[in-house]
Specification:
By secondary structure, this protein is of the alpha/beta class. It is built from 14 helices and 21 strands. Helix content is 31%, strand content 20%.
């Protein structure tokens, strides 16, 4: 662990070393106790009966563990802790291979270390700066200019992440989950090989195995990408400011990172191959991109980099073709951030040894029980094919799977109508079907879309704040009057979407929706007073309070 000051480094290093010793000593004691009680050695064993069975005593134990989880992200940790609380003997293996730039991190997975948590903190830091002009109009006496200290922000973000890493290790130890900081792969359907540099290989066996390894950024075949570009695996751990940045891609990762970098004061360009936010409502996605472009983010559309090289100045030289003229263009950047999708990290797990096949992107197909084609091996989280790649999804799926495996529940994970949000400068929250998917499923004649623009009350301190930036639409099925989905573009989108998601999950109708009395004055209440139908002319702008 490295920090900018020696004292902090020494403190965290001593804590880290102490935790490793505690975990190792606990593991050694557990092993000694198991050996005395006659635990079976590792190796291929007879296939278990299908369906959940009660956990057995140590004397009758056929495998070393009841459940072995491969992957220490949100889903894997949730499952391991839930299973241990229900009385199972559980182990979890997690090992982070460095990014091409050499970035590594601790226990907790993508969300904690290089995803949701650092992203939201940096997004909040950016919003603090963006509100500078509002603060002045609200009466605060401030300097004419404000400067941002990237290094100071990054250190604070890192400290919070380290505390979470430490907390997860502590929780596993308290719940008696054996933690292996080793890379796990399969020898067969019940046997796991555990490897780490500088230490002997180990083997472990388990009745059930759960794959929860998540994914890593995709670099594609762009010459020079791995040598000269970074990804979201690296951005949040940069100790020096990124400077002039090119973001390649138009995924939510690309737009979120470009958004907070721009609001922190860096010159940012987004290079977009085709559309913003593929798979999302395209009306809303376009509005997100337009708002960012209007507020200082440069866009290079219908283009991808041809190559990345190091220029004599030490910067990254990006060559690309102009979308219209096809002329070869080039520009220098301090940082090039690739955000062109992710792939499941299953290639080195040797799943074929257990009889599991993966899709071309590395993902695993599972049934409604999150079960793979091998009866005792399951998968959850971002590694499964065709399901939402969201932390809360992995957590809930993991807990429910643990309960089913141990005969403590029968509830299946419901992957329908899951709320989410995109933390761009103007946030986008939603739940349910996009307008396009609703029309595709129910036909255009049986779908009605209600919409409106609105201006948050707080924005009225500053005259330059737009009247038509924030936008809402509600997608309704005509025959049943059921709300199929809602889409909100404005402040605090995640907080607002979470509340209304309950109504969507319960099958709320537009009539019931309209009967709800709002809280005044809030942005959330704007969703309850929408009467105008899309397609009947320009969307109305709210007047009055």
């Amino acid at each position: 662990l490295f920090f900018n000051d020696t004292a902090t480094t020494e403190i965290y290093t001593s804590l880290f070393v102490g935790s490793v010793r505690c975990v190792q000593e606990t593991g050694d004691l557990m092993e000694k106790k198991e050996n005395k009680s006659g635990t079976a050695s590792t190796g291929e064993a007879a296939a278990p009966k299908k369906g959940p069975e009660p956990m057995v005593t140590e004397a009758k134990r056929e495998f070393e563990y009841d459940i072995f989880v491969i992957g220490g992200g949100s889903g894997g940790l949730a499952l391991a802790k839930e299973a241990a609380e229900l009385g199972a003997k559980v182990a979890l293996a997690d090992f982070v291979k460095p990014s091409p730039k050499g970035t590594q991190w601790g226990l907790g997975g993508t969300c904690v270390n290089v995803g949701c948590i650092p992203k939201k903190l940096m997004h909040y830091a950016a919003l603090c700066g963006a509100s500078f002009k509002d603060q002045k109009e609200a009466g605060w006496e401030l300097p004419e200019k404000m400067a941002h200290d990237w290094t100071h922000m990054q250190e604070n973000v890192a400290r919070h992440i380290y505390s979470l890493n430490w907390g997860y290790k502590t929780q596993l130890r308290e719940k008696k989950v054996r933690y292996y900081n080793k890379f796990a792969s399969l020898l067969d359907k019940h046997t796991i090989l555990l490897q780490a540099p500088g230490v002997p290989d180990e083997k472990a066996s388990a009745k059930y195995i759960v794959i929860a390894v998540g994914g890593r950024p995709n670099y594609e075949a762009i010459p020079g990408a791995k040598e000269y570009a970074i990804s979201s695996d690296d951005l949040f751990w940069l100790t020096e400011p990124p400077g002039k940045t090119l973001v390649v891609g138009a995924s939510y990762v690309a737009l979120e990172c470009a958004g907070f970098l721009s609001h922190l004061g860096f010159p940012v360009t987004i290079m977009v191959r085709s559309i913003f936010l593929r798979g999302y409502d395209q009306d809303m996605a376009t509005r997100v991109g337009d708002y960012m472009e209007k507020h200082g983010v440069k866009m290079i559309k219908e283009t991808v980099p041809d190559s990345l090289t190091k220029s004599p100045s030490g910067k990254v030289l990006v060559k690309f073709k102009d979308a219209k003229t096809k002329a070869v263009m080039e520009e220098e950047y301090d940082t090039v951030l690739l955000a062109i999708g992710r792939k499941a990290v299953t290639a080195e797990l040797k799943l074929e040894n257990a009889g599991i096949k993966t899709e071309p992107n590395g993902k695993i197909i599972v049934n409604e029980k999150d079960q793979t084609m091998v009866d005792n091996i399951f998968a959850i989280g971002d590694v499964i094919f065709g399901k939402p790649e969201l932390t809360p999804v992995a957590i809930k799926a993991g807990r429910l799977l643990a309960q089913r495996l141990l005969g403590k529940g029968t509830e299946l994970m419901d992957y329908v109508n899951i709320a989410s949000s995109v933390y761009t400068p103007l946030e986008y929250g939603f739940c349910g079907l996009s307008e396009e998917d609703a029309i595709k499923t129910y036909t255009k004649d049986n779908v009605v879309v209600y919409h409106t623009y609105f201006k948050p009350l707080e924005w009225n301190f500053l005259e330059s704040r737009e009247d038509d930036a924030c936008y809402i639409k509600i997608v309704v099925e005509k025959v049943s009057n059921r709300v199929l989905g809602f889409h909100y573009l404005g402040p605090n989108a995640g907080e607002i979407a979470q509340g209304y998601a309950v109504a969507i999950k319960l099958g709320v109708t537009k009539a019931q929706w309209d009967k709800t009395v709002g809280i005044h004055p809030t942005c959330a209440e704007e969703l309850l007073s929408i009467k105008d139908v899309k397609g009947g002319g320009a969307a109305p702008k709210k007047k009055g309070c």
